[in-house]
Structure formats: C-alpha cells, structure tokens
Amino acid sequence: MDQTHASSPLAGAVHDLATEVVLALRSGDHLATVCGAAGIDEENRTGIAAVRVIGADLLLPSVLYGRHPHPGDVAVLDRAVREFPPKPDAPAATAWSHWHMISTLQRMAPPAPGTAAPGTYAEPDAAWLEEAPWQAFTHQLSVLAPLAVPAAPSAVQRAAANRAVDLSRGFVRAVRRRDWLQAAGAGRWLAATGGEPATLGLDRGLDFVELMGGHDPRVTLHVRAARLMAEARAR
After folding, report:
1. Confidence category of residue 32, pLDDT binned at 50, 70, 90
2. Smallest Cα–Cα separation from 188: which of 154, 151, 217, 230?
3. Which of 41, 103, 209, 222 has its CA 20 to 30 A from that of 55?
C-alpha cells in the first residue's frame, strides 16, 4: 500500500484498488485479479469497504474489454453488495451505486445454477436529476461515474445524455476549480454519451485533467475509461 496517499486504512485500500483497475485498463489483461493484486480478499473488511467505494468499477476492465471477470473479483464485489446494503435513508447516489453493483454482477457474472444471487434491488428514482441545477447535477453525476459504461442503460444515463450541455458546463467549471476528480467523472459521462459540444475540446480537456490530477488513481481511472469508450465509439 502506498502510504503517501493513505490518510486512513480505508483510503489506502481505495487508492490501491483504483491503481490496480487503472493497470488492468492499460494492459487489457482480463486474467489479472484486481483485488488479489491489491491484497484484498473476501475476509478483508477494510478491503470490502473499499470495494463498496469503488463500486462496479472493480469489474470495469472486463466490462470495457468484453471479457469474463476474475472469479476472485466477482466474489469480493458480491460480498461488498451483501455486506453493505444501503440504509432506507441513504443518499440517492448510494442507492444508485448499489443498484449498479448488482446489475453489473448479474450482467457480467450471473450465478451458477443452484447458487444464491444477491437480492433484487429496484432501479432507484432519478427524477431529482432532471430538476437539479447544473452545478449540483455535475457533482452528482461525477459521484455516479461508475454508471457511465456502455450497454448499461439507466435513468441516470438518460439524464446525462439529455443534459450534455449542462454537464459540459460542469466539466469546465470543475477544471477551473481544480476539482480533478469531478472533472474526470463528468468527462467520463460525456465520453460515454457522446453528446458534448464540439467546441468543448473534451480530448484535450481530459489530457489536462490527467496531467494535473493523475496523482489520484481515481482520476486516471475515469480518464482512461473515457478514452476507451471514445475509441470504441469511433471504430
């Protein structure tokens, strides 16, 4: 664990997981285990909590490269879903993250016959996103950046596509405020939906975000995801 970036054991575990996801995205190695490389297994409570923070991005390399995820990563993500369900009064972003973790598991690693699957979890409400001011909208979408993946339709994704101009404004604002994580998350959504104005210069903007904020692997993760989705869309 890189202690220079770890203000707590949980923060350190999140940093390590995000770093391993980035390495897998760069290499395209679907055989590598993200959790194993980060020293996390199903019995590691801090690691399980870190997976809850990273969310479905734990399986992002498999999602973007269209390959089967490592069984160890599937097991840890499944454990995180079971161990940390959202409370009834949880923020909407937490509910959406949980829903996406379950839907990603069901899509990428359906349980074998006779094996118990995580409980069903209805798609949360997203009406609040339609009326949110563009600043708050960008903030919430950046928190929900793991939902910005291909072939995973949701009300959040539809809101992002419908408000691409607002999201572009939010991207520029985040860059000016040097909020690199928010900028990277917004940029990932714009790359996923493909609706940004041509005048935005998203590619160069993402280069700048990674240059300035790339010390945080979560920033690099979102930027790399954005580039892979943009490349796939251009093919």
Report:
1. confident
2. 230
3. 209
The whole-chain average pLDDT of the chain stands at 91
CA 190 – CA 195 distance, rounded (Å): 6
User: Mutual orientation of helices 180-193 and 155-162 as an angle, nearest 10°?
Assistant: 90
How many alpha carbons lie under 13 Å from residue 131 in its C-beta half-sphere? 3
Cα dist from 86 to 24, 95, 115, 117, 175, whole Å: 29, 6, 23, 17, 31
Contact indicator for 81, 98 with CB cutoff of 8 Å: yes
pLDDT of 180-214, one tens digit each? 999 999 999 999 999 899 899 999 999 999 999 99
Q: What gap in Å lies between CA 86 and CA 96, rounded to an integer?
A: 9
Please give the Cα distance from 99 to 55 (Å, whole number). Answer: 10
**Residue 37 in tokens:** 């490389």
One-letter amino acid identity for 19? T
Q: What are the residue boundaries of the structural domains of the chain, listed by start?
A: 1-122, 125-235
Round to whole Å and give the CA distance between 38 and 15.
Answer: 9
Cβ atoms of 148 and 195 within 8 Å: the answer is no
b/e per residue 136-166 (b: at least 16 CB within 10 A): ebbbbbbbbbbbbbeebebbbbebbbebbeb
